[in-house]
Write a structure and sequence with these properties.
The structure holds two protein chains of two kinds. By secondary structure, chain A is mainly alpha-helical. Chain A has one domain. Helix content of chain A is about 80%, strand content about 0%. Chain A is built from eleven helices and no strands. The longest helix of chain A is centred in the middle third of the chain and has 31 residues. Chain B folds into two domains: about 240 residues, P-loop containing nucleotide triphosphate hydrolases (Rossmann fold, 3-Layer(aba) Sandwich), CATH 3.40.50; about 90 residues, YebC, transcriptional regulation domain (Alpha-Beta Plaits, 2-Layer Sandwich), CATH 3.30.70.980. Chain B is α/β, with parallel strands linked by helices. Chain B is about 35% helix and about 25% strand. Chain B has 13 helices and 13 strands. In chain B, about 40% of the residues are buried. In chain B, helix 9 packs across helix 12 and helix 12 packs across helix 13. The chains are: A mainly alpha, B alpha/beta.
């Protein structure tokens, strides 16, 4: 009995996960929120910033051009839009409409659907980050990151911190509308401290300090350092890892399937 | 359905867990519920519910809104853990053996939508991929009349089509038991009738069905047996016909007498339980061969009965009597 139960449980799970991911890809095209917000908008911004001569100027007293500084900021924008807008709203929607509950009456647990959605959103985030870095380097003459492993590690930790934050939003939001509202409220301070409106180098010492403690502020700091050829500081990596850990634990603890 | 051979012996209908008369004694009980109790905070949803469903039956859980029907079947399907009592499905515990049972129990939830931007065919194929031995999806779509809608988005379906798709998804895993909650709520009369024939053909394929409903006609038409639930308790379990006859207050005979007569003439008949004057008309309630007994008695005193109408008791009469606390005692006292 136990062996049969085991095959019954694992065999369809793999087949079902493939099917779930395939359908999530189709849905990503049919309702292209993540595709438009998370990929098209940042790529469009990249084209605008790239073409603008003003971006050759250096940020404050640093040796970094605005164009270089905007590589990690655009990456932060991608992550915020995908993780805080495109990710939580459908998840809460499916809980509201009892679709997750419906799945829990089948042999495939609703966490497989969540997994499939995370896989697709992560793939979109990776694609957008690749487009931004490749576009900047190949088309607009930004120097390729000098410290590739450090850059990838920083981007990875930033992705983890933002995605777990998005899952936490999905966990606590009672309705899809609430998820949208919470995501939007979080979006502005996160992007502000990333330096989207005021470059981090021009922030007051207090603001700069706060920025260092936010997930995106730390992400921009870490990625910029890696682009300039040195390994990111343990401090900025640690801030992102801490956010990822705390948000991840809270999301797991608070997530409701129905 | 409402045959004259219905017997109202109390022993027949009060026994819980008796297999239906049409199934052999040896047939297995696929669902057994005993002393089920479930509360949410201080509200008691289910106080004490016991029933059992035999293989091949269409078993109805009938009751007014808020009676505890949905909570009961949620405990059967493993969606909720009971506070007390025993629930066994296919001999297994829906809580501890949930993984195994999910393969064999198809569930249609009362509420809930699927993903609006998935197509009918995609949803059926997706759910089929969840099961070890799924049904043939083409055949299933055909059975439910959804073949033409294969490429339609879920959000473009009508209420009836969504309901049929929901039934299809409950059946796609080739379940031994299908639990269908408020199957035809919100459907137009034609769609309801279509769904009923569908359920019958599903049963004919060997699926045992646990049906939750608050529609009398649905229970009367489909169910082999029903458990009538009110205030979280089972107030009666029997075939719809016997419930109607035994708990519905029997048949009603309406007529216009040619001249007044003494009420005692009819009330002393064993077939008559009640006599009521409605203007110049007389309504006699009772059971057995009510019509002939009354006409015979009248003829003996040379009274003629005009405009005679005989109405059989319906499940609805039983429902109304049993789910009203005061009426219940009256009905019990009469019987």
């Amino acid at each position: 009995m136990s062996t049969r139960t085991a095959t019954v449980a694992t065999q369809p799970a793999r087949r079902a996960l493939r099917k779930l991911i395939g359908l999530e890809c189709k849905l990503a095209i049919r309702a292209p929120v993540a595709l438009v917000l998370g990929v098209a908008v940042p790529v469009m911004l990249l084209a605008i910033f790239g073409e603008s001569g003003a971006f050759e100027k250096r940020v404050a007293t640093t040796s970094i051009t605005y164009r270089t500084e905007f590589v990690p900021i655009l990456i932060g924008l991608v992550l915020v839009l995908i993780a805080l807008v495109a990710l939580p709203i459908p998840v809460v929607n499916q809980r509201e409409s009892a679709y997750l509950r419906r799945l829990s009456t089948t042999p495939v647990a609703p966490r497989w659907l969540l997994t499939a959605q995370l896989v697709v959103d992560l793939a979109l985030a990776v694609a957008a980050i690749t487009l931004i870095v490749a576009g900047d380097v190949l088309l607009f003459g930004v120097h390729a990151p000098g410290q590739w492993p450090g850059f990838i590690l920083a981007a990875l930790l930033a992705t983890l911190a933002l995605f777990t934050l998005g899952l936490l939003v999905a966990a606590i939001a009672p309705t899809a509308a609430a998820a949208g509202a919470i995501g939007t409220i979080l979006l502005y301070p996160l992007l502000f401290f990333a330096g989207l409106w005021t470059p981090r180098a021009t922030m007051s010492p207090l603001m700069h300090h706060i920025s260092n403690l936010t997930p995106l502020g730390a992400a921009v700091e870490a990625m910029l350092k890696a682009m300039q050829g040195s390994f990111p500081s343990i401090g900025s990596l640690g801030v992102m890892a801490t956010w990822a850990l705390l948000c991840g634990l809270a999301a797991v603890k608070l997530f409701r399937w129905e | 359905m409402m045959g004259g051979d219905v017997s109202c012996r109390a022993a027949d209908r009060r026994v819980i867990g008796r297999p239906p008369t049409r199934t052999p004694e040896s047939s297995a009980l696929l669902v057994e519920v005993f002393g089920l109790r479930k509360r949410y905070g201080s509200t008691v949803a289910v106080e004490d519910v016991s029933f059992s469903v035999a293989e091949g039956e269409i078993f109805g859980i009938l009751g007014p809104n808020g009676a505890g029907k949905t909570t009961t079947v949620e405990c059967v399907s493993g969606l909720r853990a009971p506070d007390a009592g025993m629930v066994q499905v296919l001999g297994l515990d829906p809580q501890s053996d949930r993984a195994v049972l999910r393969e064999h129990v198809g569930v249609q939830l009362q509420e809930g939508a699927l993903r609006p931007l998935l197509r009918v065919g995609e949803l059926v194929d997706l759910f089929a991929s969840f099961y070890a031995r799924p049904a043939n999806t083409e055949e299933l779509l055909d059975l439910l009349g959804l073949t033409a809608k294969r490429r339609a988005f879920y959000r473009s379906l009508s209420g009836g089509q969504k309901q049929r798709l929901s039934v299809a998804l409950a059946l796609v895993g080739n379940p031994k038991i299908a639990i269908l909650d408020e199957l035809t709520t919100g459907l137009d009369p034609q769609a309801r009738r279509d769904t009923w024939s569908l359920i019958e053909s599903v049963r004919d394929r060997g699926v045992t069905i646990l049906l939750v409903t608050h529609f009398m006609d649905e229970a009367e038409r489909l169910c082999d047996r029903v458990a009538l639930i009110d205030g979280g308790r089972v107030v009666a379990t029997d075939t719809p016909a016997r419930l109607a006859q035994c708990e519905g207050g029997g048949n009603h005979l309406r007529f216009q007498p040619s001249e007044p007569f003494d009420d005692g003439l009819l009330t002393r008949l064993s077939e008559v339980s009640e006599l009521e004057h409605q203007g110049s008309r007389v309504v006699v309630s009772g059971s057995g061969d009510l019509l002939n007994a009354v006409l015979h008695a009248l003829k003996e005193v040379h009274v003629e009965a005009h405009d005679v109408q005989l109405e059989s008791a319906t499940l609805e009469d039983a429902f109304v009597r049993l789910t009203r606390p005061t009426a219940t005692t009256v009905a019990r006292g009469d019987g």
